[in-house]
Design goal:
This protein is α/β, with parallel strands linked by helices. The chain is 26% helix and 23% strand.
């Protein structure tokens, strides 16, 4: 029986020149994520899916492990084409190992040593994937389910064809990016959702990352002109202290008070089943902190119908309700085609049409 890793090794292509640095002795430096793995011949990066074959960095290409059409609000994006259908695709692997990962079946099988059923690896070309998205009526092509940074070459090939069909393209990512990767992606991406998992570096290291790398990615993505939204999954006893939430909100405000901040509810999953569920009061407190810190657009998620107006978008100038939502569904969108409040004319940051 062919193992998962053997199957995946048949579905690769050479890395994009912008995402690899050749070194002496046939080694390479991978630049796809902030680990910047030094990979010797016959070895793999932290993600396990970018590997050195005889001095050439090989990267994932030509398959998906998940593909699905759903509302853009599920990503979540609240200021990017509200109500649009996003066709989301993902591969295998991740450069983090978060104990509460909700996509662990596709992100962690190589690290955990279990094989997926063969039917989950669907061989497909970029053209076929885009045609599937068109049949679903998608206006957005999204890379998610596993960490898209480590499969950026594949995403760019898909996005190039999607853009020719008039679609916008987005990343749903942990934000463990490099400047090289962000510059490689910029011509193809319109928006970037980044998880800000914690403001404690020791906790980030438990998840497999470094806090500063994520903070730098948020700032650089914004400076490059990508539409950025940030999500913090509020995990009881892990990142939900008042001080930490204040620190996260202040950082985002320092980048731009117009960055939407989604504080979302945790439920026990994968290897973190000892924590309790995030309560309504947890989310309301986090949202209040974000608003008090100066963020103009703060949303509470994963508890539809239980967080009041924190699902909706309001004009910060006149407080008119502009976009009314229930869970992942848009009930009303009053933002004008020029991206303004119809009552007072204030510009509402985002991509609205």
């Amino acid at each position: 029986m062919t193992s998962l890793i053997d199957t995946l090794d048949t579905l690769t292509r050479p890395a994009a020149p912008a995402l690899v640095q050749p070194l002496e002795g046939g080694a390479v430096r991978c630049l796809a994520c902030a680990h910047r793995c030094l990979i010797k011949p016959g070895r793999r990066g932290v993600c396990q899916v970018r590997s050195n074959h005889d001095g050439e960095l090989r990267v994932p290409w030509g398959y998906v492990a998940a593909a699905h059409a759903d509302p853009i609000e599920k990503k979540p994006f609240n200021h990017f084409l509200p109500g649009a259908t996003a066709f989301t695709f993902g591969m295998i692997g991740c450069d983090f190992h978060c104990g509460y990962c909700q996509n662990w079946v596709t992100s962690q099988p190589l690290r955990d040593g279990f094989d997926l059923d063969s039917y989950m690896i669907q061989r497909v070309t970029p053209e076929q994937l885009v045609q599937q998205a068109k049949r679903c009526g998608a206006q957005v092509m999204a890379s998610s389910y596993n960490e898209p940074l480590i499969t950026s070459e594949w995403a760019v090939d898909v996005f190039t064809r999607a853009k020719r069909e008039g679609m916008r393209c987005v990343y749903i990512s942990n934000g463990n990016a490099t400047p090289e990767a962000l510059r490689f992606l910029r011509p193809h991406l319109s928006a970037y959702k980044i998880d800000l998992k914690t403001m404690q570096d020791k906790h980030y290291r438990q998840l497999g990352g470094v806090l500063q790398h994520v903070l730098d990615s948020i700032r650089m993505a914004h400076e490059l002109g990508l539409w950025v939204e940030v999500v913090t999954l509020v995990v009881p006893g892990f990142n939900d202290s008042v001080d930490e939430l204040w620190e996260a909100a202040r950082f985002l405000t320092s980048v731009s008070p117009d960055i939407p901040w989604h504080v979302t509810a945790f439920h026990p999953d994968y290897r973190m089943r000892d924590k309790g569920f995030t309560t309504q009061s947890h989310l309301l407190r986090a949202a209040e902190i974000g608003q008090e810190a100066g963020l103009r657009y703060v949303y509470a998620g994963n508890l539809p119908g239980r967080v009041g107006s924190l699902e909706d978008t309001f004009c910060p100038s006149c407080q008119t309700c502009l976009v009314r939502r229930s869970g992942f569904y848009v009930l009303e969108n009053a933002v004008t085609e020029s991206g303004a409040c119809p009552k007072c004319g204030a510009r509402i940051p985002g991509v609205w049409r």
